[in-house]
Amino acid sequence: MAGKFEVYEDRGGKFRFRLQASNGQVVAVGEAYESTSAAHKGCEAVQRAAEGATVVETDA
């Protein structure tokens, strides 16, 4: 089973997304958005950015 994005309203009334792995562990959380549609666009942006992304190690 693949992971999933969940869009939810936070305590401050803003909308965020979290990316859950297939085991239910949260592996990423998005910034606060004004609307659910903006949060969905954030999910789509992460999906596009992650496609073909490389993994690099840094000192910081």
Automatic annotation (TrEMBL):
Residues 10-57 form the DUF1508 domain. Pfam families: DUF1508. This is DUF1508 domain-containing protein. InterPro entries: DUF1508, UPF0339_domain, YegP-like_sf.
